[in-house]
Every structure is written in structure tokens, then in C-alpha cells.
Amino acid sequence: MSTEENKNKINEGKEQATKVLKDVIGKANDLRTEKPAMFYGGVVAFLVLYMFVSSDRNPEIIDAGEGNNLKVGATYFLKSPNAQTLGAENAKTAIVKEPCVLTGWDRTENDDLSVCQAVDGTQVNVLELRDAFGVANNCARVLIESGNCMSKEGWTLASNIAER
To answer: Which of 39, 50, 83, 130 is the most exposed place for a label (fewest CB within 10 A)?
Structure first.
């Protein structure tokens, strides 16, 4: 198929769409002028239906279930999501200054938001838990008790913390 044929088909499609749209608008306008009660009743019914359908879209905080049983004041260990692929000695978990920073894994030691990059297995004490991304207690402020970041404090996702 040549470029010219493609342009002709596109133009034909545009013309058909324009005709259909003009027809629908014309019929709606006729209904509005001839039977205004039916027209406006339909508009109200559409709006009520839209509000009813979209009312379930409010975000809720859900319980993390069996995945997150962290307790404030308890001691845990960091587990890097990359430990399986990189090996525990090379896997690091970002500890950041702000709670629940999604781009924590892109942080470096010299970054404005970074506190440090803790190695897999580092011992931490949970100081605070926060809800994030619709999940209860999904973010944890920790005090690092061992390893290369010892005595530093910052935030990480609760999924980066394990009992061992």
C-alpha cells in the first residue's frame, strides 16, 4: 500500500468519524429542544451513574497481612531485594532521609537524600512505622546498629527488613 493510499484511507476515516459525531450531536440537540425533560433526565442519570461507579476509587490503607509484623523498638536485619542476584556481600539497601522515597535504590552516598548504603544483613532497630502507598506500616525509620552505617538513622521500606 502506498503512502497516497494510506493518506486517502485516513482522510476517509476522519470524514466518517466527523459525520457520525455531527449526527450524534444533532440528535442530542433535537432531543434537548423537543423533549427537554428526557434529555436533562438522561444527563442526570449519566452523572449519578458516573458518581456511583467512581465512588469505590478512594484509596484505603490496607493491612499488610502476614508480610509485615514489624514492631517499634524491636531489632531486625536488613535484607536487600538484590541479595539473591548480586550476592549478600554486594547487595546494599538505601537508607534515606525522607520516609518512603520510591527512588531509594538509585541513591548514592553523596546524594542529598541519602544517609548511607547499608550492606545486606545489617542489624537495625525500628524507631517508627508509617503507612505508605496504601499499605499499613510500609515504611520504617531505623537506627543502624552494625556494619558500615553504624549509628546512622534513616528510612527504608519495611519490605527491606526481616527477622532473620
So the answer is: 50
